[in-house]
Amino acid sequence: KSGLYQSLNGVWKFDIVKNPTQRPVGFYAIDFNDSTWKDIQVPSNWELQGYDIPIYTNITYPFPKNPPFIGGDYNPVGSYRRTFTIPENWKDKEVILDFESITGYAKVFINGKEVGMSKVSKSPAEFNITSYLKKGVNLIAVQVFRWHDGSYLEDQDFWRLSGIERNVSLRAMHKTTIWDYFVTSNLDSQYKNGIFNIDVTLRSFKKSYIKNSAVRVQLFDTENNLVFTENKKLSSGNEKINFEKIITDVKQWSNEAPNLYRYTLSLLDKSGGIIEVISKKTGFRKVEIKDAQLMINGKSILVKGVNLHEHHGDKGHVPDRDMMLRDIKLMKENNINAIRMSHYPHDSYLYDLCDEYGMYVVDEAN
What we know:
Layout: E1 5-7, E2 10-17, E3 38-42, E4 55-57, E5 65-66, E6 69-70, E7 77-85, E8 94-99, E9 102-103, E10 105-110, E11 113-118, E12 125-128, E13 137-145, E14 158-160, E15 163-164, E16 168-173, E17 176-187, E18 194-204, E19 214-220, E20 226-233, E21 240-247, E22 261-268, E23 274-282, E24 287-290, E25 293-296, E26 299-300, E27 305-308, H1 321-333, E28 338-341, H2 348-357, E29 360-363
Parallel strand pairs: 27-28, 28-29
Antiparallel strand pairs: 1-16, 2-3, 2-7, 4-14, 5-6, 7-13, 8-12, 8-16, 9-15, 10-11, 10-13, 17-18, 18-21, 19-20, 19-22, 22-23, 24-25, 25-26
Helix pairs in contact: 1-2
């Protein structure tokens, strides 16, 4: 909903061939004629959009095994193109292009120039495209090879599908910005008071006009009462700062009582005005192993979990928020208290649902 965010989901122009030797080599050029190409919805798996075939296999590779090479005559390549326009008020900002997941080896181009590549599926691939942009209409072009050397590392028991399969978006950032942060919400040894800790990393790009800025952290309890606030001034635009606070008589998070506190992280100008703000939720809990027993908040628990793949009966590996919510509610109704994210990070919304509904997460990927 932010004016600093623009979705690139929707209809893209699409072409697919069965072998890399047949791919359109100059597909990324601004004057390339894609009028004969088909349309495809992004995000999607192209095998479920009428192109190519889905494959189900476990330990048998779906291509001739000769690591790190991909041999044979069959290795489809999908090419994508679309245009977009940058808002006028983004002209003094850094612009980040974010693919939440591309399955396959992807090469990314903006206005005819290569900005980078990705070989990791199920994880974000982000590119700073500020220097590649122009005023008015811009062109993005992506070419995805179904299999590549990294495919040898992603062999597992599930459907093999391809394409741009999670959200694609643009995000504008101020020249001085909150670049990263890490939140820890622990309990003291008596499991009574909460230990709230947040590390914040700031970054300044060239031509930053923001001076004498500050970072403010606020924490709100389950009833939206402010329980902690603190400002810290920045000495430069590139630094790390830390906030820590003891929250007395904190409401614990557990499978049976998933209490969540909301925090906001704000970057302020020298007058105290808000430049940017991040808001998320966190739960206070303490995880321990004592006498070979898993303990949550000092109490032993029995993990009753299920495996979960990111899969939809019609959409394939494209996340569907309604289905994720139905899955979580169905699990809770059947006394399931944990999910094993099978082999890879899932869509971030699922982790939020697990926090909200009290599901423990066993995540092999992290």
